[in-house]
Amino acid sequence: MARCSPEKLSAAWNTLSLGLVPASALGLAAPRSGIDESIGESDLKIALDVLRVCGLHTVVEEWFIEVLQMDLQRNIAPEFWNGINQQENAVEEQECVLLLLDTFRLLLSRLEPYLKSLEILGRWADMGFLHGSDSQILRDKVFTMFKAILFFSTSKTFQNMVQQFYSRTFKIYMRQKKRGNDSVSDCDSSMNEQESDSEDPVVEDFYCAGCESPKDQCWCSTAMEQFQQLNSIL
User: Fold this and answer.
1) Last residue of a domain, one of 153, 172, 187
2) With contact defined as beta carbons under 8 Å apart, do 118 and 138 qualify?
3) Contact at 8 Å (CB) between 16 and 48?
4) In this structure, which of 16, 165, 196, 214 has its CB flanked by the most CB atoms within 10 Å?
């Protein structure tokens, strides 16, 4: 039976630590050369095998979740909400939308290292390399933690931003859908006549009915692209 060497154990734990979580979460400066990115899954598996020899592989999942929880509470969540709260400085609706999207992009960039490691740990769990878990249980734990720490109590500012954004994009979508239907069918002619009676033709001439901006400043296409980007993040 292989011996549990303290030197090998220390090196293996160092490899797993830097390969599974960001260096900043461990209180370390981010390596200039991106050493954490050079640690591949095969290197991590070799390190895990060393921990298995020492009987310590059972703590890897618990350690990962604990580090993630601390990073969420101390760094990621405060950074996210500080970004959201900057909405007070945004004057235009487009500024608010861009701020919302940028804040979620930053959040995703902070979570991506953990999500990548979650996939690796999930594969290990399904192969029996970890202790008492599988990929679905592990994934449920992590995403429950995301919701509990990030979105358990949302601010009024955040709720207003999200509601305004989805209301705007829904209005743009419905306007575009109506135009598409009108272009391929004359069946809506009577409805169009009713709408034209209720809408101010002067307003219609100068303002986009979707984003409600002057037509030469219409940002409907941008809004729908941002809608797709935000949905892909969420």
Assistant:
1) 153
2) yes
3) yes
4) 16
- Using the structure block, give the residue that is written with the tokens 């050493």: 35
pLDDT at 193: 46
115: helix, strand or coil: helix
Domain extent at residue 219: 162-233
DSSP bridge partners of 170: none
Residue that terminates a domain, selected from 100, 120, 153: 153
Sign (positive or negative) of CA dihedral 218, 221, 222, 223:
positive
Is 86 in contact with 99 (CB distance < 8 Å)?
yes
- For 150, phi then psi, to 5°, come to -85, -40
Q: How many CA atoms lie within 13 A of 67 on its CB side?
A: 23
Report the chain (234 residues): mean pLDDT per 10 consecutive residues. Answer: 78 94 86 61 94 88 95 95 77 80 92 95 91 87 93 80 85 79 50 46 66 81 85 79
List of residues 6+ apart from 152 with CB closer than 8 A: none
Instruction: Quote the pLDDT of residue 133.
Output: 77
Q: Do 136 and 180 sit in the same domain of this protein?
A: no
Q: Residue 34 has what pLDDT?
A: 45
What's the pLDDT score for residue 155? 78
